[in-house]
Amino acid sequence: MENFVLTPIVAELAAHLERAGSLRLGKIFMAGTFAIGLDLRLRDNRILMCSARPNDNRFYLCDKHPRALEAEAPGEPAFVQRLRKLLGSGRLVSIEKPANERSVTLGFDAFDDAGNMSRLLFRHDLTGRTSNIYLLDEAGRVLDLLRPSEAIIVGTRHELPPSKNQKEWSEVEWDDLPPDAVELEKFLRATVRGCGATLAREVAFLSTSIGAARAFDQVKKRLDEPGSGFIYTVGSKSVLSGFLLRQYADAEVLKFASVNEAADAFFSTNDRQATLAQKRQTWVTAVATWRKRLDSTLNKIVHSQSTDEEAERWRRWGELLFANVKTGKRTEAGFEVVDYYDEHQATVTIPLEDGEEVTDAARRFFKKYQKHQRTQAAAAERLDLLGRQSESVAFLESLFAEADDDESLDAAISEAATLLPVELRPKQAADSNKARAKENEWSGLRRYRGPNGYEIVVGRNDRDNDRLTFRLARPHDLWLHAADYPGSHVLVRNPSRQPVPHNVLLAAAELAAYFSKAKNDDKVNVHYVEKRRLSRPKNAAPGAVLLSESKTILAPPRETLERIL
Q1: Predicted confidence (pLDDT) per residue in 26-73, tens digit
Q2: Domain ranges within the chain, ordered by starting residue
Q3: Which residue in 115, 176, 241, 423 has the most C-beta neighbors within 10 A?
Q4: What does the pLDDT average to over 268-272?
Q5: 3-145: which CATH topology?
Q6: How far, CA to CA in Å, does 438 sit from each of 202, 420, 428, 519?
Q7: DSSP string spanning 146-189?
Q8: What CA–CA distance (Å, rounded) separates 49 from 57?
Q9: Using CA atoms, how far apart are residues 527 and 536, in angstroms rounded to an integer?
Q10: Whole-model pTM?
């Protein structure tokens, strides 16, 4: 995110703060990889998006719902938990951005680790590879940071790295500006603080018609004027701008009332295109893998096949050996026979293996010939199948090459999901989300790795017991509970539906005894039964169970199994 785009975005947020006096901080959440969302409870419900991804720095007000942003996050680091603890009840009272620097500092009145009201700083540096988000105390000392860095020491002051030999816009003299457009662009990016690639190209472009000095002054004036937001479509890429760019006069352009609105639309479009590109690439890779597999199989068939000429020679040799078995002559090179297929009836030597009889050699050559004939027939069928599959690959390649929007890509994916071999079909994101949600259903329960690879799950309280028994357990899972004593429900997961081995049953019974009121006894009777034999009593409290039948095992109370979670 370039400085000339960041500056008006910060100015708009500062205007919100000035009108309100202070803004109470609401929800703090992960909004993607190295991205944090802050709900400042603005009247329009927009969320402040702060991204510190090295190749995707962002700071703008986003119009998405927090739940939609949270869905894009891979997890929650300890940094966000600490932000929530310290800033969760705070108020935003200040916002600062050094001129021509890509860094924003939000000041919050909140309680520190000692419980005292103090000024805490949320600082976001949008500096490319070194981009990061910090939690600082009032003196600017680092309390914590989002992206781990060996260069940052917690407890020390953190400052932006000094700019070497760079000048402010107002310090640049006309005589310093190279007249050549290419050299001018290089000079500006290396010399002028806050001048990124877009601004440098704009000055260089204007310089070709009005000269370097006037072009520089014109762009410098535009930086101080409140402007609208613009998104330019240049070929296959988009450019976000805080004012009208002359260099893209012929490009498709969208104008917005503010730079913040333009940034929201720009990043939303980029995210949508990135998702589209990632989804496309996943399936294109699968199709390419299928293509490689087919080509490899085809090459193996071609190179492994014996030629018809070789097979015909084997047939002739077999017949000649049988015809000359009594008249032929064994030599060091093989068996010399009359070649009746030769018009001159010349002699030919047929190679034999060490100690091999003539008739055995004849049968060997006939077998090789017959195998060749069978292989040819099978190869013809295989090549026909490979040909049809190659046509399917070519069809899919053309579909994905032409898919340029969600609808056409979904149509291509639908075709690929039908034609691709099952093992090559990528797992859909929805499937992985369902699997993640299904795995999360087991959170909060004690899970153990039992004998023979069985998983044993133990509830922690009445609600866990009820959830484990009546929502998560499958009909053939084995359920256990200490007889005549309050305690945890224990479940042996049994996806194979085979009888649970005795050593697994005993291990689960030990846990059921251990997590019961009888844990101090030497031996405890434990009921066990398949889950399908259980029912919930009407209007009963959570955890209550009715057993239609059960068996009992005697087990010592102990916890010896390895915990999974």
Answers
A1: 999 999 889 999 999 998 899 999 999 988 899 999 998 888 888 878
A2: 3-145, 169-267, 305-400, 441-563
A3: 241
A4: 88
A5: ibrinogen binding protein from staphylococcus aureus fold (2.30.310)
A6: 53, 27, 15, 32
A7: SS--TT--TTSB--PPPPTT-B-GGG--GGGS-SSHHHHHHHHH
A8: 10
A9: 16
A10: 0.61
